[in-house]
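Proteins fold reproducibly. Look at a sample protein:
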Amino acid sequence: QVQLVESGGGLVQAGGSLRLSCAASEHIFSSYGMAWFRQAPGEERELVAAITWTGSTTYYADSVKGRFTISRDNAKNTMYLQMNSLKPEDTAGYYCAARRAGGVVAYWGQGTQVTVSS
């Protein structure tokens, strides 16, 4: 039973933009804060951005502040990550996650690859 499904990854040149989407099962989306993580080869998975259930509070890693925007549409059970001014160092697998209070991940998506060429 698939709970979280990412889409929107791809290959883009440095300076370009991509928008990732994460479609969630309704019972998950209505109950959890949501987040985007990424993992580059040989590196640990890192938190990129997070958003509360209401969307009123967001968090961004310093490395993406001012370039990435996280949002959610509760009517569509979908979360987004708008990524602008992409850099080669943004290249990674990007994962959608549903998080319990305290930030513990309850569900992971399967990931979508983002590759930024220089």
